[in-house]
Amino acid sequence: MRKNLILIYCLLGMASIHAYGQGKPLIYILATGGTIAGVGASETSSGYTSGVVSVDKIIQSAPEILQLAQIKGEQVVNIPSQDITEADWLILAKRVNQLLAKADVTGVVITHGTDTMEETAYFLNLVVKSNKPVVLVGSMRPSTELSADGPMNVYEGAAVAASPESVGKGVMIVMDDKILSADDALKTLTTALETFKCPNYGFLGYVYNSKPIFTRNSLVRHTTKSEFDIANVEKLPKVEIVYGYAGIDSLFVTTAIEKGANGIVYAGVGNGNPNTSNMNALADAVKRGIPVVRSARTPFGPTTQHDEVDDDKYGFSASWFKTPEKSRILLMLALMKTKDYKEIQRIFTEY
Fold first, then answer.
1. Residue 187 sits in which domain range?
2. With 80 as the cut, is the pLDDT of residue 66 above it?
3. Which of 1-5, 207-211, 227-231, 287-291 has the lowest mean pLDDT?
4. What CATH number should be reported for the domain holding residue 44?
5. Domain annotation covers residue 332
6. Are 245 and 219 contained in the same domain?
7. Which of 11-25, 27-41, 85-99, 314-328 has the weakest average pLDDT?
8. Comparing C-alpha atoms, which of 216, 208, 135 is closest to residue 173?
């Protein structure tokens, strides 16, 4: 039912496409909702409702983008990003690939809630089949709030997407004048404007005077160099995350197995370490044909192989620089190709 509603919403949005700024590079803005489309009770209230404002209103909030590019808008969904699902990702990714395959399309900007923006960006980074720029933007303040940050983020996102310098950079997030790579972007603060960081590798660059200034490249595999293809995929494998903490028993790992998980990511303490109870439960999962990836609840740094945990002994794979949320996404895609832990480890090392 939800899938049908999403398809109807997407078709309705496509039926009402509007074009602005004829004669310039063509940028599509795909709107999905979030705080950037939120409405509050007043200009100074912290309370608001996400996913209210339409794509047309978002475009109109930043009229200066018409100086940068020809703009076309589509409303894909209009929901808070905590309600984004794998079904939404598939619809969004397929639409992005359709648009970027057109010779006249320069790039795509996606407006998105910040709660799960890093997950959507990372999924797209693995399945978009184009070198053309894909940029996600959002806001920490709703559209009705005093000094809302959404309009500037939309403008700067369009500036990055329209620039030839952005070709081949992979999927990016543009927020607060910063350009972030999808593989390393992380929301680090609950309410602050400067919430997004690249804690392991640093920002890709900055937006200054309406132009991107890149200071590094992402060296992991992405977009056209990715082996993952979702063109004919209707449903992704089911992967669950179990969060480790002092005193945890094996209840959640056992439940994930019983509820039909195709894979498990264990967000362990420290360097992704499970306690004895969960080590045994995870080893049992592997014996049942359910791949296990060790990640860490520690937000920065790698989850490495062969330190406290002998991954080869248990048949585990280590996530390295992927957070538990991104490890889940990569494992879902990996499971479409293999269940072998060594091959899964190869994938986690290269991506």
1. 2-225
2. yes
3. 1-5
4. 3.40.50.1170
5. yes
6. no
7. 11-25
8. 135
From 225, 255, 282, the end of a domain falls on 225
Paired residues of 187 in beta bridges: 196
In angstroms, the CA 302 to CA 318 distance is 9
202 and 290 inside one domain: no
3-class DSSP assignment, residue 40: strand
Q: What is the CATH number of the domain that holds 341?
A: 3.40.50.40
Residue with tokens 């018409």: 66
* Structural domain contains residue 27: yes
Number of structural domains the chain divides into? 2
Please name every residue paired with 318 in a beta bridge, in sequence order, or none if there are none.
294
Mark whether 164 and 266 lie in a shared domain.
Answer: no
Torsion sign over Cα 137, 142, 143, 149: negative
> In whole angstroms, what is the distance from residue 6 CA to residue 142 CA?
23
- The verdict on whether 144 is a catalytic residue reads no
Give the single-character DSSP code of 303: B
Residues 87, 213: one domain? yes
Active-site position among 35, 114, 116, 323? 35
Burial status of residue 155 (CB atoms within 10 A of its CB: 0-12, 13-18, 19 or more): buried
Residues in CB range of 342: below 8 A, 6 or more apart: none
Which bin fits 256, alpha (ψ -120 to 50), beta or left (φ > 0)?
Answer: alpha
Verify that 345 and 308 share a domain, yes or no: yes
Query: Cα angle at 26 between 21 and 30, to 5 degrees?
Result: 100
Nearest 5°: phi and psi at 178?
A: -110, 150
DSSP code for 329: H
Token pair, residue 315, equals: 């048949």
Contact 156, 63 (CB under 8 A): no
In a domain, 154, yes or no: yes
- Residue whose structure tokens are 């109807």: 8
